[in-house]
Amino acid sequence: MADSLYERLGGHSTVFEAMHRLYEKMQNDPAISHYFDSMDIVSLTRKQVSFMTQVFGGQPPEETRSLNEIHENLNISNHEFNVLVGLLRETLTEIGVEVAIQHEVLAIIEDGRDDIVQIHNE
């Protein structure tokens, strides 16, 4: 059986490093930083690592709400989602994730767009 995407990424340490760096970048990006002003980033990072672990083929997440429920009142636009995707791509490159694996990760993230984005006209 082929290794899961989670294993090919490098497991927990890589997913944690990617999410830690990504949240730092998102907190500093003028287009999306306002979403994180009053957030507990440590808790958010932990939940994101758990979720990503699951979607990449690792253990089930701690979070039981759907992506749509988590993001339903945030009014996230397509542009803001695209900023996130760009920051994630940049982060994966910085930590040395192979381009082919990056494409797999980004395809999974893209699959969640409709559950996260509420403003489609941007």
TrEMBL record:
<dbReference type="Pfam" id="PF01152">
    <property type="entry name" value="Bac_globin"/>
</dbReference>
<dbReference type="InterPro" id="IPR001486">
    <property type="entry name" value="Hemoglobin_trunc"/>
</dbReference>
<dbReference type="InterPro" id="IPR012292">
    <property type="entry name" value="Globin/Proto"/>
</dbReference>
<keyword id="KW-0479">Metal-binding</keyword>
<dbReference type="InterPro" id="IPR009050">
    <property type="entry name" value="Globin-like_sf"/>
</dbReference>
<keyword id="KW-0813">Transport</keyword>
<keyword id="KW-0408">Iron</keyword>
<keyword id="KW-0349">Heme</keyword>
<protein>
    <recommendedName>
        <fullName>Group 1 truncated hemoglobin</fullName>
    </recommendedName>
</protein>
